[in-house]
Design a protein that fits this description.
With 94 residues, the chain is an alpha+beta fold. The protein contains 3 helices and 4 strands. It has one domain.
Amino acid sequence: MRLIAKSPVGKNLKMVFTEKIKYEVKKLSHQSCCVYKNIGVEIHHIKPQAENGEDKLENAAPLCPSCHEIYGQNPTKRKFIRESRDIWYEIERL
C-alpha cells in the first residue's frame, strides 16, 4: 500500500519508497540509523518529493524515529544526512 499526502501546493505525492529500496537501505545500514546508530529505522527522503526528490536509493537515508523527527524536515541538514549515510554505509561494508 502506498501512502498519499498533499504537498503545500495541493499536488498528490507518493510518500513511500518501494519495498525493494527500503530493503536495500536496511541491508546497507544493518537496520541502524546513520546518525545515532539506533536499531530500527525509517527510510527518509533526503530531498523531499515536494522539491522533486525521487524515490531512489540515492535519495534514501536510514533514520531512527528520533532523527527523522529532528532532521527530517530541516533542509539545512540534508548535506549532513547524506554524508552521515555515506559514511555509515562505508563503515558497515568493512
